[in-house]
Amino acid sequence: MTKNNSNDSMFYEILVRIFTMLNVADLVVASMVCKSWNLACRAPELWRKLDLRSLSLRSLSVPLSPHAWIDEQSSNTMTQFLKYATSLSGENISCVIFNYCVYLRDVHLISIAERTPNLKRLVLPMSGEISKNGLEIAMRSWRCLESITITTSIYDFKFFDAIGKHCKNITSLKFACFFGQEEAESLVKYTPNLKFLSFRDMPINHRALCRVLNSLEHLDVVNLCHTDIIDYGLKLYSSHRNLLNRMNISCKIITCEKRSCLMCKNESTNDPTRQPSGILEEIRNWREDEIDSLAH
Ligand SMILES: [Zn+2]
Fold first, then answer.
1. How far is the CA of 267 from the centre of ligand 1 (A)?
2. If both were cysteines, with which of 42, 101, 122, 256 could 68 make a disulfide (CB 3.0 to 4.6 Å apart)?
């Protein structure tokens, strides 16, 4: 190696080391500075995770309110940003976490999916408007997908048809939305290898829960902390143990016993930012989980 090459290589390594401290929006800006910065911004180790939870670039700042970026102009900016960022990643992204408050559209999902063929974990935002066709295209690209945090952004249609067709390796799911009988049937049919399942702090239909617990043979852990188990709109069980004791279940069930869960521990600290407060509480529930692999 010549002296120049050696210096170039050291410069590259130093830049990459520094860039590990940037968020994705800053990384995008850095990539536009010059050729050598652009090259360093494409280092595979910078792109394992595409974390869109906090975008600090002024033109891309995402307010902390539901349905942010719902207007056309914001949506277009988001699309351009996602296309450019994922083009830097060299197909190295294995995890995508959306900002909870963005309004997800087909074009966003597809822009990412086309450039992330090795995606394993997907965390969806709270709301959006995804068509069946959009989902079909995305899932066709994501054949390696193993884990999804599901929200109301994809709630109104047959999400699992596309999963069953293209993603055969799903082992972890978190429902940050209602779980009913239709969803339970879909899980039994399309995700037979499921190991980790979380319904943390969400309402769940009683029959739907029984169906998955009795039918998914590979279930390892199910998180039911603060879950309301309901039937015909009525809350059925004040203690989950009453229900679970009647069933012959081999998997581990996590429930909140004596305020032992993360939510209760957070409330008991005196940190004011940990107190229940609408959207912040929702976001916290979406991010945290007693099953480590489903937290982010
Ligand atoms: Zn608790």
1. 9
2. 101
